[in-house]
Each structure stands twice: as structure tokens, then as C-alpha cells.
Amino acid sequence: MVEKNVKRQTNSNEAKVSSIGNHYTEEQLKKYNREKKELIFKRRRLAALFTVITVVFLASGFNIIRSYLHISDLKQEKVAAKQEDANLKQQLSSLKYDVKLLEDEDYLLKVARQKYFYTKEDELVYSLPQIKEKPQNHQLNQIDKSGKNE
Hints:
Keywords: Coiled coil, Membrane, Transmembrane, Transmembrane helix. The structure is a single chain. By secondary structure, the protein is mainly α. It is about 70% helix and about 5% strand. The protein has helices spanning about 1-5, 25-105, 105-115, 135-145; strands at about 5-10, 15-20.
């Protein structure tokens, strides 16, 4: 009868081991198997938790990076808008100055006389061609390039 209760377990690397099939060894084997299953369950639960936490951190990191890039783009747009604003303010002040000049009658007469050759009564206007001066530096550059010092 003792032989019926003996269970044989085979291990590929070790010799055959037999265990006594009494109530205590069965309970210990069940307890061991239960603890092993609980350990596997805990490890799987930790792995799942770690996976979820990793996904959350990656998603939040992605959002942070995307937000940083968006802020960078907005800063560049702000700089461009400020520069455009400054240019427009300068243009506005120039136009306001031109408006003030156009309100001045003496200035209008001066412009009309210069551009459109309007004259006063009994006034003669002589238009002389404008002579463009040749820069002397150009001649010096040609001498330097040729290597001759005359």
C-alpha cells in the first residue's frame, strides 16, 4: 500500500526522485504551487502596472515636448509680430509726416515746381541734364586688379 502512495517525479538533469504521497507532502505541494501562482500573478500585475505607468509617462512626455515646440513657435510669431508692428509704426509716422507736409502750401508749390515744372507768371525754367560723376575709386580698383602701379 505504501507503494501506491509513492509518486515518482522525473527531472531531466537529475536522477529520479520519489516523494511520499502522504497528506502533509500533498499540502506542502499545493501550498508551493499556490505561492508560485501568486508570485506569477504578482509579477504579471507589476509588469502590467509598469507598462501602464510607462505609457502614461511617455504620453505626458510627448505632450510636454509638443507643448514646448508650440510655445517656441508662438514666441517666434510674437517676435515677427513685434517687428512688423515696429515697421508699421514707422511707416505710419512717415505717412503722418507726409500728410503734414502736404497740408503746407509752400511745400506743395515747391514739389509742383520741381517735379512738374510749374512756374510762376513771367518765370522761365531751364532744365539742365544731371551729370553723373564717375567715382575715382573705380579707376583705382582697376589699377589694383591689373597689378600695375602707374
